[in-house]
C-alpha cells in the first residue's frame, strides 16, 4: 500500500513526475475585492494589467498555485496580507455552449493556510524547527482533502481568476 500512496493523490489520481513533465502556463487574472467580469473574456478584452503568468503542473493544489503567485509577484502587497481570503475561479470555453465562455468556482485558500502559525522575534515557528528532509510526515486532514487542478477539471488553456 505504501508504494501506491506515493504514486497517487489522496483521491486516487496519479502524481505527476515533475522532473520529467514540463509545467504548463496559466494566465491568471487577479483583482482585489471581486472577480473580473466574464464579459471581458467573451469580448476578448482580457484585463492584462491584472495578469500574472505562472507555470505549474496538473497535480498542483490551489494552495500551491497561490504560493507560486505570491513568489511571481512579490510587489503586490495584497498577496502578503495575513488575513486575506483568495477565491479561485476558472474561465473556460464551453464546448456545450458553442464555445462561449463559462466560469466555475474552484475553491478558497486563506493566507493563514500558506503562512502557518507565526513565529516570534525570539524563535521561529514550530513547523520550521521540524527537520523533515527526506522523511515523510503525515498529511493533515485539510491537506488530504485539498484537490489538485486536475481533480478540479482545470485544464491547460483555461484562465484562472483570483479574487
Give a verbal description of the structure.
The chain is α+β, with helices and mostly antiparallel strands and about 160 residues long. It has one domain (about 25-130, about 155-160): Ubiquitin-like (UB roll), CATH 3.10.20.550. About 20% of the residues lie in helices and about 25% in strands. It has helices spanning about 1-5, 40, 60-70, 110-115, 125-130, 140-145, and strands spanning about 25-30, 50-55, 85-95, 100-110, 160. Strands 2-1-5-3-4 form a five-stranded mixed β-sheet. It is globular and about 45 Å long. It comes from Suillus luteus UH-Slu-Lm8-n1.
Please give the structural blueprint:
Layout: H1 2-7, E1 24-30, H2 38-42, E2 51-56, H3 62-72, E3 85-94, E4 100-110, H4 111-115, H5 126-129, H6 141-145, E5 159-162
Parallel strand pairs: 1-5
Antiparallel strand pairs: 1-2, 3-4, 3-5
Key words describing this protein structure:
globular, 163 residues, alpha+beta, five-stranded mixed β-sheet, disordered N terminus, Ubiquitin-like (UB roll), SAP18_sf, 22% helix, 5 strands
Number of domains: 1
Number of helices: 6
Helix content: 10-25%
Sheet with most strands? 5 strands, mixed
Shape: globular
Amino acid at each position: 500500500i505504501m508504494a501506491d500512496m506515493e504514486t497517487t493523490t489522496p483521491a486516487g489520481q496519479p502524481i505527476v513526475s515533475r522532473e520529467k513533465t514540463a509545467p504548463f502556463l496559466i494566465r491568471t487574472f487577479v483583482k482585489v475585492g471581486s472577480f473580473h467580469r466574464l464579459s471581458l473574456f467573451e469580448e476578448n478584452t482580457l484585463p492584462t494589467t491584472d495578469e500574472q503568468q505562472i507555470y505549474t503542473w496538473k497535480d498542483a493544489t490551489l494552495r500551491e498555485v497561490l504560493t507560486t503567485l505570491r513568489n511571481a509577484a512579490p510587489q503586490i502587497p495584497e498577496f502578503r496580507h495575513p488575513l486575506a481570503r483568495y477565491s479561485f475561479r476558472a474561465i473556460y470555453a464551453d464546448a456545450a455552449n458553442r464555445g462561449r465562455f463559462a466560469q466555475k468556482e474552484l475553491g478558497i485558500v486563506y493566507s493563514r493556510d500558506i503562512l502557518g502559525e507565526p513565529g516570534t522575534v525570539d524563535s521561529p515557528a514550530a513547523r520550521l524547527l521540524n527537520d523533515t528532509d527526506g522523511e515523510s510526515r503525515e498529511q493533515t486532514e485539510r491537506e488530504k482533502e485539498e484537490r489538485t487542478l486536475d481533480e478540479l477539471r482545470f485544464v491547460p488553456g483555461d484562465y484562472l481568476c483570483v479574487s
